[in-house]
Amino acid sequence: MIGHDLLSCTSSLGIFSFEYEGRNVYLIDTPGFDDTNRTDIETLKAISYYLSVSYANRVNISGIVYPHRISDNRMSGASKKNLTTFESLCGDGTYSNVVIATTMWNPAERHDFLHNEQQLLSEASFFGDICSQGARHFRYAENGGGIAEREQCAMAIISHLIDVSRLSPVVLQIQFELVDEKRAVDDTE
């Protein structure tokens, strides 16, 4: 879910399921970093716990969607820190199962947003590095975000991740470190 309020929308982990092309699909909505109501450490522990339990029970992750507001006029320190944490959580070799979804498109500001997008996707310290390693970019609701457009964009992302996961489900770095190496969250990358 993408919120439009000043307070964070997702306060706890939510699981939503539906059937798509004969497959059961489960979407996991997690609190984001830089949350209004919890620290980044609390958020990391909640996400890590879920990911480690699912992995220990042989529930594979097909992919991860990383939303980023295209309307941000710069990559803030908090945004950069969140991206670095995300990269550590995923680990090398997993980015083909990652989607970067740029959100908050506004047709009136399209020219500026296209410039932002180009820089975000080409700059190695932003999304350029993970895109060069297989992450895919989608514009989420780039024409203003009517309900039909949002649904169509979401289904395109889900379809892509299902296709990618058929080749190889992903084991995230955090899952490997917590379950296989039996590390504590504080001792992970």
Protein described:
With 189 residues, this protein is α/β, with parallel strands linked by helices. The chain has a single domain (14-181), classed as Rossmann fold (3-Layer(aba) Sandwich). Helix content is 43%, strand content 16%. It has 6 helices and 5 strands. The strands form 2 sheets. It has a 3-stranded parallel β-sheet, covered by helices on one side. The chain has a two-stranded antiparallel sheet with strand order 1-2. Helix 1 packs across helix 6 and helix 3 packs across helix 4 (124-132). The longest helix has 21 residues, at 147-167. It is globular. The two termini are 28 Å apart. Mean pLDDT is 88; it is low at 1-10. InterPro entries: P-loop_NTPase (IPR027417). This is G domain-containing protein.
Summarize the structure.
With 189 residues, the chain is α/β, with parallel strands linked by helices.
- What is the number of helical segments per DSSP (H or I, 4+ residues)? 6
Shape: globular
The CATH topology is Rossmann fold
Specify the helix fraction band: 40-55%
Structural class: alpha/beta
Main sheet: which strands, in order across?
A: 3-4-5
Low-pLDDT segments, ≥5 res: 1-10
Strand content: 15-25%
Note the gap between the termini: 28 Å
Largest sheet: 3 strands, parallel
* Radius of gyration over all CA atoms, rounded: 16 Å
Overall pLDDT metric = 88
What is the count of β-strands?
Answer: 5
How many domains in all?
1
Order of helices and strands: EEHEHEHHEHH
